[in-house]
Design goal:
The structure holds two protein chains of two kinds.
Chain A: E1 4-10, E2 14-21, E3 24-32, H1 37-52, E4 59-65, E5 77-78, H2 81-92, E6 98-102, E7 107-112, E8 118-124, H3 132-141, H4 149-153, H5 167-179, H6 184-206, E9 212-215, H7 222-232, E10 236-237, H8 245-255
Helix pairs in contact in A: 2-8, 3-5, 6-7
Chain B: E1 7-13, E2 17-24, E3 27-34, H1 43-54, E4 63-67, E5 79-80, H2 83-94, E6 100-104, E7 109-115, E8 118-125, H3 133-143, H4 150-155, H5 168-180, H6 185-204, E9 213-216, H7 223-233, E10 237-238, H8 246-265
Parallel strand pairs in B: 1-4, 4-5, 6-9, 9-10
Antiparallel strand pairs in B: 1-2, 2-3, 6-7, 7-8
The chains are: A alpha/beta, B alpha/beta.
């Protein structure tokens, strides 16, 4: 008999939902969280179910994780985000032993065993310097969308050297550098360097075990991935849809379903 | 009228504001203007306006010392001196009893230990916006309150809100969401002052704090922040009449000292051509 499970990651910036069919990804959705995590979780779940052509009645279980997990009242259970990130990372890349998650608020590095269990982790929740928020701040002053940052940054000729890793100071520094004639591409490449330094610092403190996967919204930024690869000196694995990793992990852990690899994209 | 024979100018080019103090002939003229996003290109304008008000020509200024983070490559300055040294000198002349200075600037905060107008030790944070004026600016904007209103409003707070985040970016979000949950604006402002005071205290206590403690920089103009710092330090603090001008005043006084010393030794100081040009951004 086919088992369907719903995994929800109520993130601080985006709500993500996945429908898993016997441990394989069947459908997913992602929407901005807005101010209301419960409402966003409900909406994104309905959207994922619709894409999967299923209804609530077909689900064997619903599992929530993430910043706003506690508000998801229709979930059967909630799970810690670190466990879900580990399980999700391992689902995408069974060879991965480190997952770096670059979310909008937090950056985490998680070490895991061959079964996708988190064995140790380190998290930066005190400073926006290594988080996706930094990208949002810079995108705003450059009047561009976050999605366009990666491709544009690849055109950089001489990346701006920021004297600071602070997102707030980098913003004013970027304004000054633009006034001096620095190109947006060079600014963005500089931001990637500043962020990568913070993220790499975190990862190295944890201890980098290969292979290393990167998830979260930040992983969609190809410029950031390339800079981080240089900084860490390893090739990074990035799933096709890096934002849904924790939601997948939640769905998988919720059913204890042995999983199979559904998508593997070596970036 | 300032005696044009001997007058000294101190120019403090901060990250946010440019300050000029001209001393001479028993008179003191000062001016504060924005540094502006184009770095220190506006320094010559602030200088020009200060000279106009003092009623003296640039060529008649005996010696000009530049300080602050934008002090390099100012074409009309004779010498650069670090803001730490200038702060100590300026404060000593204003408040001789102060032995510890807490300076809360636009983009940094620092603590300086002073003995007889000389720097004994200092600590500085210019790597993180928490605990600096920038933090206040961002929160003020998020709350829709003018920067110069923050102090008064926070004094009217019933109970300071607890701001859990240290990072400016996260604290801004936290303030917005607490506001949405009905937390009164005044309580949030008071909470922000406590957060900054805690951050600044954590920095400055690395020094051996010796009373009296003085607060300078733009942060000292915020009565709510000054009160929060007083309760954090557990003692009253001194605030100069115009806390923004401490560094520029110190620069002018250092210029005068150097000039007088040189005059006594019979080897007059070399000065640069007095051209009110824009500061160059790079050495070349």
């Amino acid at each position: 008999m086919t088992t369907y499970t719903l995994g929800i990651d109520a993130g601080s910036s985006f709500a993500k939902a996945v429908v898993m069919q016997d441990g394989k990804l069947r459908a997913f959705a992602a929407i901005p969280s807005g101010g209301n995590y419960a409402e966003a979780a409900r909406k994104v779940s309905m959207e994922a179910l619709e894409k999967a052509a299923l209804s609530n009645a077909d689900l064997s279980t619903t599992v929530a994780t993430g910043y706003g997990a506690a508000t998801v009242d229709f979930a059967d259970r909630t799970l810690p985000d670190i466990s879900c990130h580990a399980a999700g990372g391992c689902h995408f890349f069974p060879s991965a032993r480190t997952v770096i998650d670059i979310g909008s608020q937090f950056c985490r590095a998680i070490k895991m065993d061959g079964d996708g269990r988190a064995t140790n982790f380190i998290m930066n929740e005190k400073c926006a310097g290594g988080s996706g928020k930094f990208l949002q701040v810079i995108a705003r002053i450059l009047h561009m969308s976050v999605e366009d940052i990666g491709p544009l940054s690849m055109e950089a000729k001489s990346p701006v050297e920021f004297t600071t890793g602070c997102a707030v100071f980098a913003e004013s520094e970027a304004v000054s550098r633009i006034a001096e004639g620095a190109s947006p591409a060079d600014i963005l490449a500089g931001v990637h360097k500043a962020m990568s330094a913070k993220i790499a610092n975190l990862t190295i403190r944890l201890g980098l075990a290969r292979d290393c996967a990167v998830t979260g919204g930040g992983a969609k930024d190809i410029g950031l991935i390339r800079t981080l690869e240089t900084e860490l000196g390893v090739e990074l694995l990035v799933p096709e849809e890096p934002r849904i990793s924790a939601a997948i992990g939640a769905a998988l852990l919720g059913t204890n379903q042995p999983w199979t690899v559904t998508t593997v994209t070596h970036s | 009228m300032t005696d044009p024979k001997t007058c000294f100018a101190g120019l403090d080019i901060g990250s946010t504001m440019t300050k000029v103090v001209i001393v001479g002939g028993g008179q003191e003229t000062s001016l504060i203007g924005p540094t502006g996003p184009e770095h220190r290109k506006l320094a010559n304008r602030v200088m020009e306006e200060a000279l106009r008000r003092a009623g003296i020509a640039l060529g008649d200024v005996t010696y000009i010392v530049a300080t602050g983070y934008g002090r390099i490559n100012v074409p009309f300055a004779d010498r650069q001196v670090t803001e730490i040294t200038c702060h100590a000198k300026g404060l000593f002349s204003l408040l001789p009893a102060a032995h510890t200075v807490v300076d809360i600037g636009g983009q940094d905060s620092k603590g300086i230990r002073i003995e007889n107008g000389k720097v004994v030790d200092f600590v500085m944070n210019d790597k993180c916006a928490a605990g600096t004026g920038r933090f206040l600016e961002i929160i003020a904007e998020a709350l829709g309150v003018a920067l110069d209103q923050l102090g008064e409003r926070s004094l009217a707070a019933e109970k300071p809100a607890v701001i859990g985040n240290m990072c400016t970016v996260f604290a801004e979000q936290e303030v917005i969401s607490q506001l949405a949950n009905g937390e009164p604006v005044n309580n949030l402002i008071a909470g922000i002052h406590q957060a900054i005071a805690a951050r600044v205290y954590a920095l400055v206590r690395k020094l051996k704090i010796k009373p009296d403690i003085a607060i300078t920089g733009g942060g000292a103009k915020n009565i709510g922040l000054v009160k929060a710092l007083e309760s954090m330090f557990g003692s009253p603090v001194l605030v100069p009449r115009e806390p923004l001008l401490t560094g520029a005043l110190g620069a002018a006084l250092i210029g005068r000292e150097m000039y007088e010393k040189a005059a006594r030794s019979g080897a007059p100081l070399a000065t640069r051509a007095r051209v009110l040009g824009e500061a160059k951004l790079f050495n070349n």
